Amino acid sequence: MQPSTYKYTTFAMLFHWFIAVAVVLTIALALYLDGLDLGPAKSQALSIHKSVGIAIFVFTWLRLVWRLTHRPPALPNTMTSLQRIAATATHSCLYAITIAMPITGYISVAARGRETTFFELFVVPSWVPLDRALSNLTETAHRYGQYAVYALVALHVAAALYHQFVVRDGLLRRMWPGRSPD
């Protein structure tokens, strides 16, 4: 029988899965945007992409605060030190990229003088001076950052599937809703 701290808390799971779905949605929207010509469809998709990015930014900070104030379940004893280091590094990089990507996206738009709204509910204040060079720099960082997102998400999913189907240590069930295994 696993200890009572085997699973993540409900809030930790909600944060994880909300951010995971939102990241996949922003990736899908970004890929969709690349194929669109300038016009209303592109403008609307970009607005949704930016809004979801803001939500990722806010929920990542909330998740990070939750994580710092609530101890996660221990990793399985079957994991090697290298696997533990890789897991910690990957999680840290995922936190960093889900904070950095919305920041670079926001700065690239704001420094160009373009407005950002959050799901058409309110206008996000522009805290960045107009600066074409800054906009270009952060747009480039945002564009290259997408490849870090792809790599980190792929690594994270591959590790979870490896533990679920090869090692069979039940690691995936820790973040999956439902009952703890007996």
Overview of this protein structure:
The radius of gyration is 19 Å and the shape is elongated. Helices cover 66% and strands 3% of the residues. With 182 residues, the protein is mainly alpha-helical. The chain has a two-stranded antiparallel sheet. A hairpin with a 3-residue loop joins β1 and β2. The termini are close together. It has helices spanning 10-34, 40-69, 81-110, 132-167; strands at residues 116-118, 122-124. It has a single domain, classed as Fumarate Reductase Cytochrome B subunit, CATH 1.20.950. α1 packs antiparallel against α2.
Structural class: mainly alpha
| Rg, nearest Å | 19 Å
Q: Characterize the biggest β-sheet.
A: 2 strands, antiparallel
Averaging pLDDT over every residue, what do you get?
92
Percent in strands:
under 5%
Low-confidence stretches: none
Number of H/I helices: 4
From the N-terminal CA to the C-terminal CA, the straight-line distance is: 5 Å
Short description:
This protein is mostly helical and 182 residues long.
List the helices and strands and how they pair.
Layout: H1 10-34, H2 40-69, H3 81-110, E1 116-118, E2 122-124, H4 132-167
Antiparallel strand pairs: 1-2
Helix pairs in contact: 1-2, 2-3, 3-4
Q: Could you name the key traits of this structure?
A:
single chain, about 180 residues, mainly alpha, Fumarate Reductase Cytochrome B subunit, two-stranded antiparallel ribbon, 4 helices, 2 strands
